[in-house]
Amino acid sequence: xxxxxxxxxxxxxxxxxxxxxxxxIDSEVVxxxxxxxxxxxxxxxxxxxxxxxxTSEDQKKAIAATCFNQPAAKTAxxxxxxxxxxxxxxxxxxxxxxxxxxxxxxxxxxDSKTQERALSYYQKIIPKLYRxxxxxxxxxxxxxxxxxxxxxxxxxxxxxxxLRVVGHKSVALASQNFMMSMAAQGYDTCPMEGFDSKKLxxxxxxxxxxxxxxxxxxxxxxxEGIYGDRxxxxxxxxxxxx
Length: 242
What we know:
By secondary structure, the chain is of the alpha+beta class. The chain contains 9 helices and 5 strands. It has 2 domains: 6-86 and 167-228, NADH Oxidase (3-Layer(aba) Sandwich); 89-161, no CATH class.
């Protein structure tokens, strides 16, 4: 099958809710599309995500049950589950620091001030922000920003709930990368938010700190899998040039 152009993939992608059981999809192609997901932009390049690729029939059946057996899960040939892992920020910070240090060494950059500026973001700013993942520290971060920097230009999304939003935004960007990559291959997907997160986390053996962003059904569409024509609000109602 010829790979679609980006515009063709955009037009092809629909939320498909019924898949053709007679048309298998290649697990390796799906895996490559997940690799494309990991190339998405991510806040501070922390990459606080994991992707669970479900191909086992038993696992698919169990996960479909947590999705209330909705057709997009029950008929899916495979499932992909993007997960937010804010709890991994210390490891991902260290990975970025190591990458930056190797970059300086590789390019023979010895200016200590340049290195200090580059590393300070990950060694000082990010740890201070992500320790706000706890409710108490998040409250203190928010209070400090409001009280001491209220009249200054300042980053204000510093509470625990703000960091949750940041994590899910990054994972959503990666998920869209995945779905567009699948569409380019002629494969179909459906992102689902209707699931029992407690039961699903247990199946995936995830820690309490992990958060499931969505469950994505994958396969090749049946005609009845598209629930009507695509509807979008008129562009003039959502586009503003200033």
